[in-house]
Amino acid sequence: MTQLKEDVAAMPCRANRHAKLGPAFAIAAAVAAAYLPSTAFAASPTLVTGTNPTAPVALEPHPEITGTVYALWPNTTTPAWPLYTIPSEVAAFTKYLPNVKLVQQVGNNDQALQQSQVEAAITAKASAVVFSPVVPTAAGGALKEFADANIPVIALRQDPIGGPVNSYVWVDFQGVGKFWGDYLTQHLVSDVGHKPVKLAMILGDPTFEVYNRWTNGVKPALDALVASGDVQIVCKIDTKGFVPATAQANMDQCLTTNAGNVDAVLVMQDSTGNGVAASLTSQNLLGKVKYYGGHDGDVVALQRILLGYQYGTFKPDGKQTALGTVALVIAALTGKTPESTGYINAKFMNGFYPDGVPTFLAPETLVTAENMQKTVVDDGFLPKEKICTAAVADTAFCKGN
To answer: Would residue 383 be called left, alpha or beta, if left means φ above 0 and alpha means ψ between -120 and 50 degrees?
Structure first.
């Protein structure tokens, strides 16, 4: 099982600069330890990581903590959210904050709708907010509103850009990109059987930092493959909002532009990958055009893997992200720093704090046909019956072989 973890030195004190944000933010900001003196104010968001693993403090239920926590999810159309992120978060809150009311609201990828939910949380005097901005680059205004209302914010999965925030929970997407780059180096030419391999790249939304992380990870290997003449990139198209229908149109466009002369495709994650697969299927090319990449552990992606159309995908550790989120909420509500949880192993330079936002990057797991029982079913990620529908019922995995 492949796992990706990173760490960082503690961040400097920012309490004096932001004392007006209230006790929770002031305490969370008071991180007094050695830090990188070369760190400058970030003009654009980036993620800075180190090398040491986390050492989480064991969580215990806190029935004495009451109040209301708002969870502002961005959508339920990206498979990862309804599949495991939201259920895992709800389960963790239920177990460790049993007397806290969790109010869940979905933004439906609509910035205006989510802004109304921000205002509702403030009006309700929420004790804390778990915030996944629909548009990360536009999150600063909402973050300032929460701060002015003395409501601590723990960001989850989508970047808290441009404003004050207690902490951030996500995964190491650069490691995922590096894996796929290394995998292509080892397998692409032999899989296709000739060179140069005509490679299509259908990527995600560049307004998300995970896009930059993933491309930074995959770029060295791809650059080397192109320079050697082994690969020719015939199209490279971004997909705003990671919307499957847009990715399908992008792949259609690529195939049309190249008169169908595409040997392989590299995708960034599973929802865009589903759109790419739909495009290939519509032209009877799925299984003929080699398919690489993946992230989220979407059911349809898992089925493609079992059918041999896709090598593998990565799934974030939903349990660990949920535990990290709840631990950070508890710390904020009890006047402790994010670092006190033992989860912080990175910092996100969000263009607001010169010293960065304390960040937890949860482990990642590579899922293949060979390890799906262990990494998906035995791990409690998904039950086998949810994967083994009619489309894949005859595979060895579903027959129990």
So the answer is: beta
